[in-house]
Specification:
Amidase signature (AS) enzymes, two-stranded antiparallel sheet, 13 strands
């Protein structure tokens, strides 16, 4: 029943939007193809009067209707999207353009609060009847202030993939299974799977995901797009259903590094409701991230090659070795580096996540006014609705997290200290400082695995480098680097805290040097 309801919702929104291209432009509308268009290109077309936000929004709504049944990435369409687009067009006519995202359609993950006609559920049926959030998440406020059109919510791995160790990434009780748009029986990775698949399939111009460890980087790289996980404290988390305050962040999931820079300019803002964005003197004066889009940004850059991630998968090694050659040709200085403490914080990280998940989620549920206000109550809901919520995997992480105590427990405090020591002080900070590096590079992913409801995310020899930056709370950007047959492979650039401008510079240069991104072959290139 849930899939029928979801499709009915999308069908209704698309039908309501039918025929809403710019007046007198019916023939042009039929020929319109916005595939792979960047925010800058769409903005320029609107500025010249060649397109309207209404026309752009309608194109994406139509594409969602025709393409998304194949990949199941959209959990809900905003019924007010066309009305918002019309308002953006009125503002443009009145010379009230709010910025480079004015009139640009954006999709956001269904764990980000919106105070509108859409639900916010983290993919769980337990929140399907919860009150609509009283206010937008802070980052949604910033998007609206910037003139963006909130187009839709994307499916995700339920509860951001923190319910069970045997989960199937991209599956939620409310939204079903999201598929990889490159090969439809392959997994899109979690937990921002819907956003990754939607942006790869050109269902929106801009996307936002969230990450605790790998949930922006993994679906972005596996779906052949750019994903940027910011430093903790750069982007607000208020109004986002949490896993762990020490690692959670929202960030751009887009098709180009340029779009990531444009979006990060909007998202980078201090929020009084999220102390990480306002305390410790961490926020710095900066120019626009767009200023970091320098084509020869790799020239003279010292890039550490994280050799710990080589030798695990021959296909990945081949693609990443080719990426290193491209960096050298672009003028980068490559320095082999190792992380001897790489395997010393895994257990501690999981302990931290369990404690912080219970603490943060229960605070969120109480503030939301949801019927279920504790992990124990959610566990009971899942047991009572097992046929819908647990047809493929259980809730072992929920159950173990529910047993954890307060954040004053010695077990938690010791785990936090271990994570910081080995990921920061004796991890990224030490390697960057000793080798005078601008950034570190490693493989983002191996070819993705089959969707498997029996074995879950078996991984097929999965290779990823997200954990170092994730546990440290440091920035990480993944960029398409090549393909294993038809499956995308990305490389990740990461570094010390608040080095987003530097990472964008080297990532953009790499992207422009290689131009490795290509559209999925198994989906139409236009409506």
């Amino acid at each position: 029943m849930k899939n029928l309801d979801r499709r009915d919702f999308i069908q209704t929104a698309a039908v309501a939007a039918a025929g809403l291209f710019a007046v007198g432009n019916a023939s042009a509308a039929q020929k319109l193809d916005l595939s792979e268009k960047t925010a800058a290109e769409l903005s320029a077309a609107m500025q010249k009067g060649e397109l309207t936000s209404e026309a752009i929004t309608n194109w994406y709504l139509t594409r969602i209707k025709t393409v998304d049944p194949k990949i199941n990435s959209i959990i809900e369409v905003n019924p007010d999207a066309i009305a918002i687009a019309r308002q953006r067009d009125r503002e443009r006519r009145l010379k009230n353009v709010k910025g480079p995202l004015h009139g640009i359609p954006v999709v956001i993950k269904d764990n980000i609060d919106t105070a509108d006609k859409m639900k916010t559920t983290a993919g769980s049926l337990a929140l399907a009847a919860a009150p609509i959030p009283a206010k937008d998440a802070f980052i949604v406020e910033k998007l609206r202030e910037a003139g963006a059109v909130i187009l839709a919510k994307t499916n995700l791995s339920e509860w951001a993939n923190f319910r069970d160790n045997d989960s199937v990434s991209g599956w939620s009780g409310r939204g079903g299974q999201t598929r990889n748009p490159y090969i439809l029986d392959r997994n899109p990775c979690g937990s921002s799977s819907g956003t990754g698949s939607a942006i790869a399939a050109n269902l929106a111009a801009i996307g936002i995901g969230t990450e605790t460890d790998g949930s922006i980087v993994c679906p972005s790289s596996i779906c052949g797009i750019v994903g940027l996980k910011p430093t903790i404290g750069l982007v607000s988390r208020s109004g986002i259903i949490p896993i762990a305050a020490s690692q959670d962040t929202a960030g751009p999931m887009v098709r180009t590094v340029a779009d990531a820079a444009v979006l990060l300019d909007v998202l980078d803002a201090a929020d009084q409701a999220d102390s990480a964005t306002t305390t410790g003197g961490k926020r710095r004066e900066r120019s626009s991230y767009v200023d970091s889009l320098i084509k020869d940004g790799l020239r003279g850059a010292r890039i550490g090659v994280a050799r710990d991630f080589w030798g695990r998968n021959a296909v990945v090694d081949k693609v990443t070795d080719a990426a290193l050659e491209a960096m050298k040709k672009a003028g980068a200085v490559l320095v082999d580096v190792k992380f001897p403490n790489l395997r010393k914080f895994g257990d501690a990280e999981f302990t931290v996540l369990q404690y912080e998940f219970k603490d943060g989620l229960e605070k969120y549920l109480r503030g939301r006014g949801a019927k279920y206000k504790t992990l124990d109550e959610l566990i009971k809901f899942n047991n009572d609705n097992a046929a819908k919520e647990m047809p493929y995997f259980k809730q072992g992480i929920f159950e173990s997290s529910a047993k954890k105590g307060p954040l004053t427990d010695k077990e938690y405090l010791d785990a936090v200290a271990t994570c910081r020591k080995y990921s920061r002080e004796e991890g990224i900070d030490q390697v960057v400082n000793e080798n005078k590096l601008d950034a570190i590079v490693g493989p983002s992913n191996a070819p993705t695995w089959m969707i498997d409801f029996v074995n879950g995310d078996c991984g097929s020899g999965y290779v990823g480098s997200s954990s170092l930056a994730a546990v440290a709370g440091y920035p990480n950007i993944t960029v398409p680097a090549g393909f294993a047959r038809e499956l995308p492979i990305g490389v990740s650039f990461f570094g010390k805290a608040f080095t987003e401008s530097t990472l964008i510079k080297v990532a953009y240069s790499f992207e422009q040097t290689t131009k490795a991104r290509r559209q999925p072959k198994f989906l139409p290139t236009a409506n």
